[in-house]
Write the C-alpha cells for this entry.
Amino acid sequence: MMESLLQDLRYALRGLRRRPGFSAIVVLTLALGIGANTAIFSVVHGVLLRPLPFHQPEGLVVAREVYGEGSVGTVSGPNFLDWRGRAKALEGLTAYRYRTMALVGSGEPEEIAASMVAANFFDLLGVAPALGRGFATGEDQGQPTVAVISDGLWRARYDADPEVLGEVITLSGAPYTIIGVAAPTFAFPGRAQIWVPLGFGVAQSTERSSHSYDVVGRLQPGVALEQAQADLAGVARDLEREYPESNAGRGVVLIPLASDTLGAVRPTLLLLSGAVAFVLLIACANVANLFLARAATRQRELAIRSALGGKRWRLARQVLAESVLLAVGGGVLGLLLASWLVDLLLVLRPPGIPRLQEVSVDGTVLLFTLVVSVTVGLLFGLVPALAMAGQDPADAFRAEGRGSSQGPRRALFRNALVVAQVSLALVLLAGAALLVVTVRRLGAIDPGFDPAGAVSFRLSIPAAKYPDEPRYQGYVARLLEQLEAIPGVGAASAVFHLPLGDGDVNGDFSIAGREPAAPGQEALAGYRLVGGDYFAAMGVRLRGGRFFQRGDGAGSQPVAIVSEALARKYFAGENPLGQRIAFGDGSDGARWYEIVGMVADVKHLGLTVTPGPELYVPLSQLQPDLWSIFAPISLSFIVRGNGGAEALTAAIRAAVRAVDPEQPIARLRETGELIADAVANQRFGMMLLTLFGALALTLATVGVYGVMAYTVSQRTRELGIRLALGAGAASVRSLVLRQGLGITLVGIAVGLLGALGLSRLLGGLLYGVNTTDPLVLGAVTLLLIVASVAACAVPAARATRVDPIEALRSE
Amino acid sequence: MTTLIRLADVERFYQAGPTRTYVLRRVNLEIRQGEFLTIMGPSGAGKSTLLSILGMLDSSWTGEYHFLDEAVHPLPQKKRVELNKRYIGFVFQKYHLIDDLTVYENLEIPLSYRDVKSKERAAIVAETLDRFQMVGKKDLYPSQLSGGQQQLVGVARAVIASPQLLLADEPTGNLHSAQGEEIMELFSRLNGQGTTIVQVTHSERNASYGHRTIQLRDGWIVGSE
C-alpha cells in the first residue's frame, strides 16, 4: 500500500514537472487564494479566536454604569468599592484608569501608556508577572511607589536585564520602584506599558459623582452572566436609594470581557474574511477549470491504466495525488505569501484592532493552511478523479477517436465556474470602489481648520513637577514663548484636545440676562481651552469679532470665542458678540466671559459628525474650580511655520528640551495626520479590498482566458470548417469574443445582484456613497468587460489563425 | 481444446433519445484456448466494440459471456476488472503508452496493478526488456521512440503479466509493413507458446497469421472461415 502510494506521488510529481506551465499556474493561483486567507486568518485567530491572555478568560466581565437613555460609562470610585464589597455573584472586581505618563531615566524621556490599577488587578485576571511580583493588598492606598513594567518596555529600555527589579524610575515626576515585569503576552488594558497602583485616596472614595474607573470582574464559578447581572443590578438599586443625589438613575451592565474588547473589530475582520474567502473561491474556480481541462486530456491515460487492470480507487488516487500535491504546493507558497502579508498588515497598523502584537503565523495557522490546501486538493481532485475513473475505458477510447472531450454538461459547468468568478470579482471590486469613493469624499470634507504647514505634539505634563495651576500655566507660557521664537514660526498654541478624535470635554453654560434653564434644558457646548494664538496656529477662520490677543490674560476681562454652531443654536437672530456667558449654571462666584469673536465650525468629533456648539476660552483665564477637570489631561500643542515639517519638528524638540529637559514629547507629527487618522479605518479597508479586488480581477481574467483558450482548442475542427467555408477572420474573432463576453455579462449580472448585499457588510464604513451608486457599479462593470475582452483577445486571435487543412486533417 | 470464451446473443447499442443504434447484434461466438482468432470487417462493423467486450473494457452490453466457464454477465464491474487483470492483455492500434512514464515504468504498471512485489516486479520487467531486446531503451519516454518501438513496448506491456488471452486492436495499423510483420511474428511466437490471441485487423496478410477469421458487418457476424 505504502509502496504504491509513494509510486503514485512519484509519478504525480513527474507529471507535474513535465507540465510546468499548468503546475505553475495552479500553484500560483492557489498560493494567492490560500496566502490571502492564511494572512487574514492569522489576524482573525490572533485577535478574535485566541483566548484572551488571562486565566479562564470566559469568567471575566466588564462592569459599567448605565445612565440616561441607555448611556454606558465609567464607574465612580465609591460605586466600585461598594460593588466589590456587596456583589455575591462575583468572585472579585478590580478597577483601572488609563493615562499617559512621562518616564524619565535610562535613556530619553518618553511618554508611555500607563495603567493605574487596583492592587488585586493581576490576581483577578489570574496573570502573574513573569519576573518579580504584582501588587500586594493595600499597595493601592495612598501615594503609589511601585510599578510593574511590560515585557516590551523591559526589553526596549532595560535590555531584558533581570536586575531591573528594585530599580527606581521617575514617572511624571514621582519616584516608583520596579517590582515586576509582566508576561510577554500580557497587554491589558490596550497597549499598556506600565502598571502602577491606583492610589485610592480620600477623594476617590468619597467623590461619587466623578466617574473615571474602568471595572473588570470575575464571575463566581458556576454563576451565569445573567445571574451576576441581576445581583449587581440589585446592589446598584440599593446605592440609588442610599445616594440619590449622585446615583439616581444609575444602573450597571455586565459585558463579557471578550465581547467588550473585540466586539468593535469583529465587523471589519469579518468583512476582510469575506473578501479573502471570495478570493479563494475565485482561485478555486480557476483551478477547477484547469483541472477539468487537465481531466479531459487525462481521459486517455486513465483509460489505458484501466485497460491494464487499474482499479477505480487506484486510478482516482493517482489523480488525487496530483491535485493534492499541487494544492499543498500552493499552500506552502501561500504560507510564505501570508507571512509577508501579515508583516505588511502589521506595518499598516490597522486602526482600532487590539491584540495585534499576538498576530503571527503559528501552529494553528499552519494547520488552517494545511486543511485548506488538502481540502482544495481533494475537492478538485476527487470529483474529476471519480468521474474519470468510473468511465468505461472503451468509451474513453471512442471519445478520443472522435476528438471531442468536452460534453455539453462539462462545458456548462466550466462556463458556470467563470460566471461565479466574474460575479465574485465584481462584488469585491464594487466594495473596493465604494471605499475608494468614501476615502476621496472624506478627504474632501472641510475639517474647519487648515492642517497644511502645521505640526502638532502632545505633552503629559507631570503633576508631581507642576502640581498647581500657576506652575503649570507658567510652564506652558514659557514653552509657547520658546516655540514662537523658532525662526519661521507664525503661530504657536496649546489646546487640551485636538480636533478629530483626540478627546472632548463638554458641559453646560449660562448666558447672561437669560432665565436659568430648566433641568435637562441647559445650553451645552464643547469646552475648548486654548493657549497662545490657537486660531492662527490651527488655521480656523474668523467669522466675526476678533481672535484672542496677548492682552487677554489672567488679570484682564475674561473673553470667549464661540463657534458658528453655538451662535446659530443659542443666539439665533441675535449678535453673539458682546454677550456674556459663564460655565455651568452661572451661580455665585462664576466667571463671566464676554464673547469677542465667532469662528467657523471645526469637525472636532469626527469628519462625518456635524459640529456642535463650541466655546473657546483662553487657558490663562480658566475659572479656577474647573482646573481639576483639565489638569490630568495631556496638553497638545500646534506650531505653524514655514520652515518645512522636518526642520520644524527638530526645532520643537529643542524648544521642549530647553524648557524642561525631562519632558517627553509624544505624537510629534504634521497636523495633516489628524485627518489621515480620521479616515484610517476606511483607508485600511480600502487598501485591503483594493488589493483583494485586484487579485480577484486578475484571477477572473485568467479564468475567462483559460476557458476561452480551451474552448478554441476544442473547437479547432469547427473553426476549420467555418474558415474552409469562407468565414473571414473578423467573423471568427467575433464568434470567440461574443462567447467570452456572454459568459462575462452573465457573471456581471449575478455580481450586480450580489453587490446590493454589500450594504450590510460595508454600511458602517461608507460615506457619501451608497452600494447602488450607478457610477461605481458602472465603472466596475466596464472594468470587467474590458478585462474580459482583453482575456478573449488572445484566444480570438488564435482562432483566426486556425489552418483549415490542418484542423480537418487532425480529426 | 478447452473453450476459453463463449458469447451468446451479445448485443451492444447506444441510446440517443428514443432511438437505439445497435453496434453489435446477437453475437454468438466461441473461442478456444490457444486459438489465434482474427476479426475483420469494414469500419463501423463493431470489431473494436466486440474486442472491448471480450477484454471487459466495456460493460454496457446485454447477453451472456462466459470466460473459462465463469459467467461474466452477472459479475459487477469490480469482478470483471479482476478477471481482466488475471487473464487478459491488450494491444492497441495507437499503442496507448503513458507519455509521462519511461519504457521501464510503462512495463511496470500492469504488475503494479496486480500487486506484484517490488523486487519481483523489477525481475520480471528486466526479463521482459531482455526478451524484447529493449534494455537500452528502458529509460526513454514514448515520445523518444519510433512507432514500431512504441508498439513493441505496447506488446511487451500486454504480455508482461503472462495473460492467457491477448487482445490486439489493429496492432499494426500505424506501422509500416516491416514493423508490422515483426509484430505479427511476435504474436505468432506468443501463440505458439500457448497464448490465445484475438486480433482485429483490416489486413488479409495479418489475418493469415491466425487460425480462424470471423467477418462482422453492421454488428452481425456474417461469416467464419
